[in-house]
Design goal:
Elements lengths: L1 E4 L5 E4 L4 E6 L3 E5 L4 E4 L3 H20 L10
Length: 73
């Protein structure tokens, strides 16, 4: 999930796996698979970087050897 900012300044988390399309018109409009849409302050490039970082974190968590004494983060 990525943290984004609506135009009114409120932040929210979005499941990036559900994104169908993203357009910059000039506001960034995200349309999900279920038809819901969000207009956010982040540019398309910023959104792309947030999604890439989220994917990196998921891969690290999946392939990192787990030590049972370590807290999950």
């Amino acid at each position: 999930m990525v943290i984004l900012t609506k135009l009114d300044g409120t932040t929210f988390m979005l499941n990036d796996d559900l994104i169908e399309t993203v357009n910059e018109t000039p506001d960034t409009v995200i349309v999900l698979e279920n038809g819901h849409s969000y207009i956010v302050r982040e540019s398309m490039a910023e959104l792309q970087e947030k999604i890439r970082e989220n994917i990196r974190q998921r891969r690290r968590a999946r392939f990192r050897p787990r030590n049972d004494s370590e807290p999950l983060t």
